[in-house]
Amino acid sequence: MKQVYEFREGGKDLIPLLGGKGGNLAEMTKIGLAIPNGIIVTTDACREYFRNGKKISEELRNEILEKLETIQKKPLLVSVRSGAPISMPGMMDTILNVGFNDAVAEEVLASIKDETFVYSSYARFISMFSEIVQGVEKKKFDKIAEETKNPKDLIPLYKALYEKETGEKFPEEVKEQILMAVNSIFNSWNNERAILYRKLNNIDDNMGTAVVVQEMVFGNFNNKSGTGVVFSRNPSTGEKQIFGEYLICAQGEDIVAGIRTPEPIAKLQEEMPKVYEELLENIHKLEQHNKDMQDIEFTIQDEKLYILQTRNGKRAPKAAVKIAIDMQEEGIISKEEAVLRVDPSLVNQLLNGDFEEKAVKEATLLGKGLAASSGVAVGRVMFDSKRVKIREKTILVREETSPEDLKGIALAQGILTVKGGATSHGAVVARGMGKCCITGCGAIKINEIDREMYIGGRTVKEGEFISISGYTGEIYLGKVAIKEASYDDDLKKILSWAYEIKRLQVRMNADTPEDVKMGKDFGAEGIGLCRTEHMFFQKDKIWAIRQVILGEEGEEKNKAIEKLFELQKEDFMGIFKNLNGDVANIRLLDPPVHEFLPKEKADKIIMAKNLGIHLYDLEIRIRKLKDENPMLGHRGCRLGVSYPRLYKAQGRAIIEAALDCRKEGHPVHPEIMIPFTMEAKELAYLRKEITEEIECLFEERQERLDYKLGTMIEIPRACLLANEIAEVADFFSFGTNDLTQMSMGLSRDDSVKFLDQYREKGIWEGEPFYSIDQKAVGKLVEYGTRLGREANKNLTVGICGEHGGDPKSIEFFERQGFDYISCSPFRVPSAILAAAQSYL
Ligand code: PEP
Ligand code: MG
Predict the structure, then answer these.
(1) CB-ligand 1 contact for 735 (6 Å cutoff)
(2) Residue pLDDT, tens place only, 412-425
(3) Radius of gyration from C-alpha coordinates of the chain
(4) Which of 86, 188, 324, 541 could form a Cys-Cys staple with 338, CB 3.0–4.6 A?
(5) For the whole model, what pTM was predicted?
(6) End-to-end CA distance of the chain
């Protein structure tokens, strides 16, 4: 098995083997760009290394040494870099200037004649190598450097430190240095932050990293040298204009670390116009070749440009949409590819909008930094990543971020750093996560000890609220109100393409005419779930339903029921009108009755008075209604079986509202949905009762209307007997919230308390109420769908649990051939996009 490739032997198609960096370098060599020469040790070799008990085999050693001969340059100075098939920026290690020893330093000095440059490069190599390969703390080297003026004097001191810390002599032989470096890069695949990054990004732990060994070019060679990072388009806004920064007389790490503040790329045009022109040409070539926005690292050595690396650039949600559209319109990619380019979860963030203009005007501006990743965030200031907690609104404020801050960044609402440019670590990671981020706000002074910061003449303590804007870089004191949904033309365009492409119908879970309006604006195709009980939580209606629940059996209860649904009919009419002919799936009462019962003494007194009974009698009635386990108690269609009048009257209200709307000229398509079915006979009984009531209505009004009557499938038994249930249902709507709860025996409301521990201990990954557990709950869904469809060829199948808005689950429902998915109005745009992507 070939384990080492020369650049000229590879290409992008070999990325799984050569890693992203290696594959792209090989590809760039192929298209004739100025790439320093090198070799790539494959991911296969990395996997073999771990299988081999973390040892480089004799075979691999020989192959590396043999291929190194193809790098002709003498003396041989190389960088040794990690490069996984999927980009994991900053998570693994890199060692620069490998190859130095005393003789090499003298040799280099003979041609470069700059002692400071040569010996600082040499010293830098020793400290980097020692830190990464042997784990010697960098600060020990820094301390020596502080006390030593002449870089040449550092060399013996650094080597002595190495020897003291490791008990070994510093390796002088270049080949040995390279092999040790390769060894440690392999190991960095399994460092803590790389493992966490993979977990957060669902990257396979078994993939392994490739290692790129490449000739060094020196950005710190002289004042006509430098290093930079440039994006082929603006990664925050998407504008077609290069965006980036560079540092004169510096090496790559200086930019990424954000320690020195770099110059904007436009300045390079003044400083080195020829190099700038060549850079532009290279950027254009790379973008056209890779058909995506590129994030390019370059180095200039003595006015000669070298491209070191390119990859598809991470971008803010807004930029992702704009770039996809522009590239389609420029003829670089197709509509389908453009749709695939936008991550559906980022659409939600786009819809997060901006601060309210009025609130911004009134807010206290504390300071301004670099707008590094768009969006806005409001949260409590936290200076330590470890103290950022899940589900707490936090703004992580750091001097500069490092990969150790990853968990904090993932949990925080927004990131604010004192140092660093727009391509520093914090900025890149935040943008990738679609998180608001401000960098380089030098006006902040952090006092770690007292846990406070000083900015804009004020002291802000840890825990106090601030608001930050990733659009303007502005930082405000306190909470600034956020404006809802900014739904711009670019987003509408990409969604309209997704809409044309998708197969699944995307409906909304909407309970009010206002929800319907919003959902329709977002592109929803009707209602997949209207939870009618939600209508009763509005003030005036809660008493009406209490009257129904607590009223005396018989005439009194029936009267209360008629009154209740008379009230609800108005809501239904509002919904039908706003739907304008789209389907309305309306679910009959579902929740456990206790949710509606009066709890406060004052409410109980009113209720007793309304019913004309003593408070004591009311308490008895309430106690009788109490379920020990309400989620599995007297709810859903069980209420309908106990009180058929309830479901009959509600069914009548729906159809009456539909008839009235139709009379006013609005087309209507009602669907009546029975919740919580566990048995076909249960549904058959209710179907008969409701149908009889509706037939009476048709008789009274001397007109008819088409409607469907079906059920939710949310109890495991219903999935297993779906064939029987399908015989009496026009449609199935999977209620995956309850189905997950009951299949996994996990409470919808309480499982957050312990699932974190499950995740920490590696027992469980993900959040089953967010993304469907395809392994088991999914199996029930699949089985139920198949049985249902076999028994009833006309059965419509959809989903209305929370999973209906989750892109990963949507892909699963597409695979099951569902007719529709349904989610909250706000999630409809991302669901449309996910539906299109799942179909492609
Ligand atoms: C479900 O259980 O998935 C569902 C949609 O119903 P609810 O959330 O109202 O129980
Ligand atoms: Mg349910």
Answers:
(1) yes
(2) 999 999 987 766 77
(3) 32
(4) 324
(5) 0.74
(6) 35
